[in-house]
């Protein structure tokens, strides 16, 4: 990258930059490049206000002028990034959306090691185990932002938080929530480590030896864990929890959508700790 | 349809029945045929136990024998429906899923008029206004089942509750929850009509003149309404509510995912009415 930045215009579908951008919809390519894609002026503005500047900004040539877009362009150029103009059709091809947003950005993936999280920074954390749906994962990030969580910890083989679907569903929370990826065997010692007052409380919704979720003895930092969409949490993971809680199930089903369970439980923990 | 039922075997992708089944993934065709598709042994068993027998049952030739599947086949044959065997590849093409369930069923769409709902049958009802995501809609049905809601009322132009995505996300609740479709101008008089003790209380999450959602004066039958994913509820819809409540938003975002908001609010109403 060199300064000053040239504003490139791209009009061909076979342009290498278009191919590169489109490839970021694929997990393998994201991993290799260490980069991901986020769309939309509001989301990119959230990113900017959280200190995340895209390395590349791609704008539709047909966009309406907007002061927030001007601020984005300035920030990217100031940071030595590249600003590219292209057609709505090509933007649509890049993002895989019929009605694409007028702007998209390429970001470097963040550090997702447990060590990068400060568990004393927030009273609530969300934990997902083998969650396969990127929409659920993004929704959990969005909920985490709302309940003042510190972030989302992904245990075992989860969907990619940097996928276009997860970033979209997070509504910008991918930039504000901490994100860590770890195996169960890494997570548990990390959770139990440190001085007593920092020791995390691990809570899961469960049908086994559980107490009602309302009025349960939640304690900060409280880690609210949900499991895989089909299988739920492994039995030994549940057994390792400090607290197993149960939510009313009045109908035929015995479980909630994973992101819904995390939210109902998360809001209960918030009320309990705030009260 | 004639009795006794022949078990047809279909091995060709261009078979008219395959084309018919595949067409049910399309809203236009569902509407014309008045039928929809549901997949999976568990879901079809839920349907059966709720008194919904598929008109046609499609099974993979490679399926494992299962007593629940035997019960399904018997029920369909007894009702004069058709049982079809086909290859996993064709089932995959029909359902649009890479790893299809071993069985799918075709159901007649239900009556979705407001008049078919008995509001005294349950203390809680969910209401969605212009909800566009079929996954959100299915998740609301699933949550409704869990909180003992009577059903889901779809206001204005919502996603189709009989789409494959909504049925899948509902985890069978599409068969157990009441479903009605209405315009706002039909819904409001229906809600306010009838004797005083049956008059519904309309509740929405709102930022305008709202009270905290915890401890708000909920009353049965309580109708919990959420709005469109992007725009939320129209201002005049909010103004017409009996109760506007607000949930804590500790982060940058000012809203939750629609299905998440319905669940957090729905569980709060349940606790309030049960307490």
TrEMBL record, chains A, B:
<dbReference type="GO" id="GO:0005737">
    <property type="term" value="C:cytoplasm"/>
</dbReference>
<dbReference type="Pfam" id="PF22435">
    <property type="entry name" value="MRM3-like_sub_bind"/>
</dbReference>
<dbReference type="Pfam" id="PF00588">
    <property type="entry name" value="SpoU_methylase"/>
</dbReference>
<dbReference type="InterPro" id="IPR001537">
    <property type="entry name" value="SpoU_MeTrfase"/>
</dbReference>
<protein>
    <submittedName>
        <fullName>RNA methyltransferase</fullName>
    </submittedName>
</protein>
<dbReference type="GO" id="GO:0008173">
    <property type="term" value="F:RNA methyltransferase activity"/>
</dbReference>
<comment type="similarity">
    <text>Belongs to the class IV-like SAM-binding methyltransferase superfamily. RNA methyltransferase TrmH family.</text>
</comment>
<dbReference type="GO" id="GO:0006396">
    <property type="term" value="P:RNA processing"/>
</dbReference>
<dbReference type="GO" id="GO:0003723">
    <property type="term" value="F:RNA binding"/>
</dbReference>
<dbReference type="InterPro" id="IPR051259">
    <property type="entry name" value="rRNA_Methyltransferase"/>
</dbReference>
<dbReference type="InterPro" id="IPR029028">
    <property type="entry name" value="Alpha/beta_knot_MTases"/>
</dbReference>
<keyword id="KW-0808">Transferase</keyword>
<dbReference type="InterPro" id="IPR013123">
    <property type="entry name" value="SpoU_subst-bd"/>
</dbReference>
<dbReference type="InterPro" id="IPR029064">
    <property type="entry name" value="Ribosomal_eL30-like_sf"/>
</dbReference>
<dbReference type="GO" id="GO:0032259">
    <property type="term" value="P:methylation"/>
</dbReference>
<feature type="domain" description="RNA 2-O ribose methyltransferase substrate binding">
    <location>
        <begin position="37"/>
        <end position="113"/>
    </location>
</feature>
<keyword id="KW-0489">Methyltransferase</keyword>
<dbReference type="InterPro" id="IPR029026">
    <property type="entry name" value="tRNA_m1G_MTases_N"/>
</dbReference>
<dbReference type="InterPro" id="IPR053888">
    <property type="entry name" value="MRM3-like_sub_bind"/>
</dbReference>
């Amino acid at each position: 990258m060199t300064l000053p930045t040239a504003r490139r215009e791209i009009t061909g579908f076979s342009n290498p930059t278009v191919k590169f951008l489109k490839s970021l919809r694929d997990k393998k390519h994201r991993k290799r490049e260490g980069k991901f894609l986020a769309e939309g002026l509001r989301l990119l503005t959230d990113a900017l206000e959280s200190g995340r500047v895209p390395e590349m900004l791609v704008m539709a040539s047909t966009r309406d002028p907007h002061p927030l877009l001007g601020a984005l362009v300035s920030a990217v150029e100031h940071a030595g990034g590249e600003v590219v103009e292209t057609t709505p059709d090509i933007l649509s091809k890049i993002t895989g959306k019929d009605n694409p947003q007028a702007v998209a950005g390429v970001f470097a993936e963040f550090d997702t090691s447990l060590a990068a999280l400060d568990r004393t920074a927030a009273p609530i954390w969300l934990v997902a185990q083998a969650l396969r749906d990127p929409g659920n994962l993004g929704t959990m990030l969005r909920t985490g932002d709302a309940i003042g969580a510190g972030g989302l910890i992904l245990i075992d083989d989860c969907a990619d938080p940097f996928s276009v679907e997860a970033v979209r569903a997070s509504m910008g929370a991918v930039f504000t929530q901490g994100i860590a990826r770890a195996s169960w065997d890494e997570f548990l010692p990390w959770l139990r480590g440190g001085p007593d007052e920092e020791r995390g409380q691990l809570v899961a919704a469960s049908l086994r030896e559980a107490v009602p979720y309302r009025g349960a003895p939640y304690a900060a930092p409280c880690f609210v864990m949900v499991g895989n969409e089909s299988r739920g949490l492994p039995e030994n993971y549940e057994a390792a929890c400090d607290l197993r809680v149960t939510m009313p199930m009045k109908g035929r089903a015995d479980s909630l959508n994973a992101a819904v369970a995390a939210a109902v439980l998360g809001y209960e923990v918030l009320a309990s700790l705030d009260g």
